[in-house]
């Protein structure tokens, strides 16, 4: 069973899709969510990033740390990440790997400066891991890791032989295309925690922006995450934006139902006006959403239209 019964900081949470703005965000200190998981939020709050990008440190001073999503190349945030990854003597830079969940500008550009900081401080240089951005990625979302990870791979942090009483921490890589073609989630097996990157958020809705984003892949990846959570008894989701989500399976089911409901609404609008175009369908299909969000919603609408048309061509696929 997962170890996380000793979760340190049970967080107040909101329903997926609810408006965010928790007022208690701060970016200066790491927040201990578990004994072996720290969250440090980057100072990049905004329309698309909510309270800012959550960088996570998994590990402990005896095993070293994995940094998940170093975030934007913000020098102060990178310095704080370096400091939070403490050695047993409290000096920083005890980083074994840096993993980027995907290539977007609020997730991966901090990787190189963090690696450089380790190099300059004389610490062992952590490899930057992840999947290379696909040819469909936008110009500001290019990413090439030092080493590509693959689906199912495990990244293990083990204590050195002298400290063998300390526990290991194992992150399983799960390829989850949909929000971005090169998106991966990470499942901390011993604790049953899913690091969901941008695939699942808390307080905002993931944008699916074709062609690098793909709605059919997104929904399939939700099924993959459901199965991984069942297998590993995962109960919590730690997203890249927003608070931790309890009830992982419930959150995944809610999200899938929300997407399918929106898709049904779009399909109905399209069949009522088959000669129309996305700009005509948008206000009807998203009449419950603030028009300020329509330019972003249009990207996801196009992703749904792509999937609806694909299903019409292959009606046997559920
Ligand atoms: Zn993203």
Please write out the topology.
Blueprint: E1 31-34, E2 37-41, E3 54-60, E4 64-68, H1 75-84, E5 95-99, H2 111-120, E6 127-130, E7 147-148, E8 154-157, E9 169-175, E10 184-188, E11 193-197, H3 215-231, E12 236-239, H4 248-272, H5 278-285, H6 294-313
Parallel strand pairs: 4-5, 5-6, 6-7, 11-12
Antiparallel strand pairs: 1-2, 2-3, 3-4, 8-9, 9-10, 10-11
Helix pairs in contact: 1-2, 3-4, 4-5, 4-6, 5-6
The structure holds zinc ion.
Please supply descriptive tags for the structure shown above.
318 residues, alpha/beta, Metallo-beta-lactamase, Chain A, seven-stranded mixed β-sheet, 12 strands
Task: Characterise this structure.
With 318 residues, the chain is α/β, with parallel strands linked by helices. The protein has a single domain, classed as Metallo-beta-lactamase, Chain A (4-Layer Sandwich), CATH 3.60.15. Helices cover 28% and strands 18% of the residues. The chain is built from 6 helices and 12 strands. A 7-stranded mixed β-sheet has the order 1-2-3-4-5-6-7, covered by helices on one side. Strands 8-9-10-11-12 form a 5-stranded mixed β-sheet. The longest helix has 25 residues. It binds zinc ion. The site of zinc ion has 5 residues, from loops.
Quickly give the CATH architecture. 4-Layer Sandwich
Write out the CATH superfamily name: Ribonuclease Z/Hydroxyacylglutathione hydrolase-like
Approximate strand percentage: 15-25%
Shape: elongated
What do the pLDDT scores average to?
A: 90
């Amino acid at each position: 069973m997962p170890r996380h019964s000793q979760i340190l900081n049970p967080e107040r949470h909101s329903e997926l899709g609810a408006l965010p703005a928790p007022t208690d965000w701060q970016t200066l200190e790491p927040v201990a969510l578990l004994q072996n998981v720290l969250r440090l939020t980057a100072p990049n709050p905004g329309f698309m990033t909510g309270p800012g990008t959550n960088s996570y440190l998994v590990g402990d001073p005896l095993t070293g740390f994995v940094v998940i999503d170093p975030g934007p190349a913000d020098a102060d945030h990178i310095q704080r990440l370096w400091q939070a990854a403490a050695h047993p003597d409290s000096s920083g830079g005890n980083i074994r790997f840096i993993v980027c969940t995907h290539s977007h500008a609020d997730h991966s550009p901090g990787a190189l400066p963090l690696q450089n900081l380790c190099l300059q401080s004389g610490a062992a240089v952590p490899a930057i891991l992840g999947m290379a951005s696909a040819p469909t990625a936008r110009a500001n979302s290019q990413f090439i890791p030092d080493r590509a990870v693959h689906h199912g791979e495990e990244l293990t942090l083990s204590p050195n032989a002298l400290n063998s009483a300390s526990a290991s921490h194992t992150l399983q890589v799960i390829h989850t295309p949909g929000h971005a073609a090169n998106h991966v989630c990470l499942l901390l097996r011993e604790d049953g925690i899913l690091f969901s990157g941008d695939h699942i958020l808390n307080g905002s809705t993931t944008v699916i922006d074709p062609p690098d984003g793909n709605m059919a892949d997104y929904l399939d990846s939700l099924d993959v995450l459901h199965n991984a959570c069942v297998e590993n008894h995962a109960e919590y989701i730690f997203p890249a934006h927003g608070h931790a989500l309890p009830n992982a399976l419930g959150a995944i089911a809610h999200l899938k139902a929300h997407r399918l409901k929106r898709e049904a609404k779009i399909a109905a609008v399209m069949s009522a006006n088959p000669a129309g175009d996305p700009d005509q369908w948008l206000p009807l299909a998203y009449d419950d959403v603030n028009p300020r969000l329509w330019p972003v919603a249009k990207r996801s609408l196009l992703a749904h239209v792509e999937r609806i048309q694909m299903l019409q061509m292959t009606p046997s696929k559920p």
